[in-house]
Specification:
By secondary structure, this protein is mostly helical. The chain has 15 helices and five strands. It folds into two domains: 32-385, no CATH class; 390-459, no CATH class. The chain has a three-stranded antiparallel β-sheet, covered by helices on one side. 41% of the residues are buried.
C-alpha cells in the first residue's frame, strides 16, 4: 500500500507537469502559425509592389518563417539544457556577452539607425537587435540573484551589489542609451513582478515599482521626442497628417472591423494607409480583419500562455526555476499589453512588437528562446517529481478521524498524501532542511529527522 501511494503521488505531479508542457508547446505552435498568417496578410500588398522585396508577396512571411526555425533551434537547445547551467554556472559569461552586444550597437561600425533610434547590429547580411536577446539574459541572471538573496546565500553584500549592477543595471542602462525606453519599461515591470513572486515584502516591491515608474516618467518629460508622443496620445488629431497619422489609421482599422471583422485578408488599411502594418500595428490589422472577436482571441491566447507558465512555475524544483518560468511568460504578456495600450491611445507608442505576431527576426527568436527556457524548467520539474528518492515529497497528511461508536475501535485515516500541493510543500521543506526525513504526527506537527529511519535501523541488524 505504501509503495502504491508513493507511485500514485509521483504520477500525479509528473502527469501535471507533462500535461502543462504539452499544452504550452501546442499553444506556442498555434500562435506562431497564426502570426505567420497575419504577417502574410498584412505585408503581401506592400511586398508585391516594392522592389526591396523583389515584388514577392511572400517575402516577409518567408523571412519570418526561416527566422522562426532559427528560434526553434535555440528553444530546443535551451529546453534540453538544465536551466541551472545557464542561470548559475554560465550566468557571468551570458551577462558579459549581452553587455558586449549592447555595446556594439552604440559603435559606428555596427549600429544601424532605424526610426530615430540605434538598436540594431548590422554586419554584412546579419541584422540583430541585441536588446531582444538581453531580455532573456536579464531574466535568467535576475532569477539567480533573487534566489541567492532570498535563500541567504549572500555572504559578501558588496560583491552581490556589483553582480546586481553588472548583470541587471548595466544592460538596462545600455538599452536606455539607444534609446529604447519601451524595452526598459517591459523588463522593469517583469523584474518587479519577479521580486513579488520571490517573496520580497510587498512594501519594498511597491517602492521599487513606484521609483521605476517615476524614473521613466521623468525621462519622458525631459525628452522632447517623448513629450510629443505623449501629446499625440492625448489627441492624435493635433497632428493628423504627421505624428498622429499612424495612430488614427490604426483606430480606423479597429472601427472598420466591428464585431467579426471584414474577413481574413480583406483589410483595406494595409493598402499603404497604415504604415508598419505587419510590425508594430499588426494588432490593428487583426482587429480590422477578424474584428473584436479576433482581438479578444489574441488576448485569451496570451492569458492561457501566462496561466500555463505559472502552473509550470508552481511545480518548479526551486525558486530560481519558478522565477524563470514566471518571468518569461510575464514579459511576453506585458510586452503585448504595452503594444496594445499604445495602439488604443492609453499610453504613448513604444515601438514594441507583439510576441509571435509581429514581423521581426530578433523578436521571434528571442520569444521562442524564452519559451525554451520555460520548457527547461518543466523538464527539470518532471525529473524532480519522478525521482526515486520519495523522501523529498512524502508527508503524513493530518486527516480527520473516523470514529466508531463508543467503546469500539477508533480508526484514524493515515498514509501518505497524494496531493500535489502537499508534495510541493514537503519538497520545499526538504530543500530547506537538507536530506532529513519529514514526518507529521496525528496532531499535525512536523518533525525533521536527520537520523536513519526505523526500517533502516532494522535492516542493519
Amino acid at each position: 500500500m505504501m509503495a502504491r501511494g508513493q507511485a500514485q503521488a509521483r504520477s500525479l505531479v509528473a502527469g501535471e507537469v507533462v500535461r502543462d508542457r504539452i499544452l504550452l508547446i501546442l499553444l506556442v505552435f498555434v500562435m506562431t502559425c497564426f502570426g505567420l498568417l497575419m504577417i502574410y496578410s498584412a505585408s503581401s500588398i506592400m511586398a508585391v509592389t516594392s522592389a526591396d522585396s523583389n515584388y514577392d508577396q511572400f517575402y516577409y512571411v518567408k523571412r519570418q518563417a526561416i527566422l522562426a526555425c532559427g528560434g526553434l533551434a535555440m528553444a530546443l537547445v535551451a529546453s534540453r539544457m538544465d536551466y541551472h547551467a545557464w542561470a548559475r554556472t554560465l550566468r557571468t559569461p551570458i551577462a558579459v556577452l549581452s553587455a558586449l552586444l549592447l555595446a556594439l550597437v552604440l559603435t559606428p561600425l555596427a549600429g544601424a539607425d532605424a526610426y530615430g533610434a540605434t538598436r540594431w547590429v548590422a554586419i554584412g547580411p546579419i541584422h540583430l537587435q541585441p536588446s531582444e536577446f538581453s531580455k532573456a539574459a536579464i531574466i535568467a541572471c535576475g532569477a539567480s540573484l533573487m534566489e541567492d538573496w532570498m535563500g541567504g546565500y549572500v555572504d559578501d553584500r558588496r560583491d552581490f551589489v556589483l553582480k546586481l549592477f553588472g548583470m541587471i543595471g548595466l544592460p538596462l542602462f545600455m538599452i536606455l542609451m539607444q534609446p529604447d525606453k519601451g524595452t526598459v519599461l517591459v523588463v522593469g515591470i517583469t523584474l518587479v513582478l519577479m521580486l513579488y513572486i520571490a517573496g520580497v515584502p510587498l512594501k519594498l516591491v511597491g517602492s521599487v515599482f513606484f521609483a521605476a515608474v517615476l524614473f521613466i516618467g521623468v525621462l519622458a518629460v525631459l525628452d522632447d521626442y517623448s513629450r510629443r508622443r505623449i501629446l499625440i496620445v492625448v489627441n492624435p488629431w493635433l497632428d493628423q497628417f504627421d505624428r498622429g497619422y499612424q495612430l488614427i489609421q490604426g483606430l480606423y482599422a479597429f472601427g472598420a472591423g466591428g464585431l467579426f471583422g471584414v474577413g481574413l485578408g480583406m483589410s483595406r488599411q494595409k493598402y499603404y494607409y497604415l504604415p508598419m502594418a505587419h510590425n508594430d500595428f499588426i494588432y490593428a490589422v487583426v482587429g480590422e480583419e477578424l474584428g473584436l472577436v479576433g482581438t479578444l482571441g489574441v488576448l485569451a491566447a496570451f492569458f492561457l500562455l501566462v496561466y500555463l507558465g505559472f502552473r509550470i512555475a508552481r511545480n518548479a524544483p526551486d525558486l530560481c526555476g519558478r522565477l524563470i518560468a514566471a518571468g518569461c511568460v510575464s514579459l511576453l504578456a506585458i510586452q503585448l499589453l504595452v503594444n496594445v495600450s499604445g495602439l488604443l491611445c492609453i499610453i504613448p507608442l513604444s515601438g514594441k512588437p507583439i510576441p509571435f505576431l509581429s514581423y521581426g527576426g530578433s523578436s521571434i527568436m528571442s520569444t521562442l528562446l524564452m519559451i525554451g527556457m520555460v520548457v527547461s524548467v518543466s523538464r527539470q520539474a518532471q525529473v524532480a517529481a519522478g525521482a526515486s528518492d520519495y523522501d523529498a515529497y512524502e508527508a503524513f497528511s493530518p486527516a480527520p478521524a473516523l470514529s466508531a461508536p463508543s467503546g469500539r475501535l477508533r480508526v484514524v485515516q493515515g498514509g501518505r498524501s497524494t496531493s500535489p500541493r502537499d508534495i510541493r510543500a514537503e519538497r520545499d521543506l526538504q530543500q530547506s532542511y537538507g536530506a532529513g526525513r519529514i514526518t507529521t504526527n496525528r496532531n499535525g506537527s512536523r518533525r525533521i529527522d536527520l537520523g536513519p529511519s526505523a526500517s533502516d535501523r532494522l535492516r542493519r541488524r
